[in-house]
């Protein structure tokens, strides 16, 4: 028997468990259209990864997805054929390896070796040579050196360079620049803020919990919202009793601020019937329900999808009061016109304001999505205005700063009606600076540390 027989071969190394989990989550996102936060949280629970392993896995997943477009530009220079000709599972392995080499403190030899082992286990021995050669080529330059080699200069094409250097599609950068109204340092600071992992922000739902309880559980007071606390160092929010019981929840501070602004706006007359027209999954609904309950009122929450309506009900479970969740289309109200004192229209949008927490969204969304969503956004705002009584107010809200999803929608709807007008919403954000020229309000990650939430306050006259 010669020495090359199977019996005498050394056993093959097993792939690193954390890297394998990260790769499988990335495949769920890129191949199956999954959401990174949901797929990752499920995988961490099922694989019982915690502490450093969970943190390492999270950075592998979020970082690879966040910088995907930039890494593809580097890989296109390192592979002898078009990236479109590579099998998708192979391309995801190369992206994962590139992230470790260029943006993580992983030894280059170890990173390449681990990715070769993972390649063998996931897609077979035949691909290991290509992965080894490409990743070694990637490792020969730093991130800055790759950007210099691949991106145009500032003089040639500033936005094109930012697209590579800051890992955002060019069309998104152009929309942000338009919304910011400047093409100076503010734009670059925004792109940098989008690439930073967001803080875990909690909301204490009034009447059910208070911020002091969250602070006693290890959180710290947030900067703007009176209901917000920040969970320092991350960790599982579910370990806090108020969160576990639904008396508090996880909610970005910007989302809290726009809901609180609607609740603080002046209305003439009664103030007991509030409507959340696009309620799922129910974070803003729960805060509004808690606030209207303090005024002996009731929230009606409308959501077209049954499974998301169940999420709204779950969020409302710990809130006192007789609140109502309806499964229905907000553009086709089943209630009489003028039934409500306050209406929240938090409309479906591209989500470009939450790129910090949805790393895959920047590469998944396209300009066509903005065009396709526009009619629904206009119909929902029009329905919201019809649903509020004279003297009442509507908050039109998006988690996108794209001008075609914000003020353009408001102007288009109000241009067809003579019974509603915009009011200055800035006074509803006490103590919050840099709110712009009004009358609408745009929050920003780089200025406020929140998602890029937009609010326009419309009064029915």
From TrEMBL:
Cited Pfam families: Methyltr_RsmB-F, NusB
Limits of the SAM-dependent MTase RsmB/NOP-type domain: 176-461
Family annotation (Gene3D superfamilies): NusB-like, Vaccinia Virus protein VP39
Alphabetical UniProt keywords: Methyltransferase, RNA-binding, S-adenosyl-L-methionine, Transferase
Record carries keyword Transferase: yes
One MF annotation (Gene Ontology) recorded for this entry: RNA methyltransferase activity
Active-site annotation: 399
Single GO BP term: regulation of DNA-templated transcription
Domain of life: Bacteria
Positions annotated to bind S-adenosyl-L-methionine: 278-284, 303, 329, 346
Family of this protein: Belongs to the class I-like SAM-binding methyltransferase superfamily. RsmB/NOP family.
Function description: May act as RNA methyltransferase.
PANTHER family cross-referenced by the UniProt entry: NOP2 YEAST -RELATED NOL1/NOP2/FMU SUN DOMAIN-CONTAINING, RIBOSOMAL RNA SMALL SUBUNIT METHYLTRANSFERASE B-RELATED
Name assigned to this protein: rRNA cytosine-C5-methyltransferase
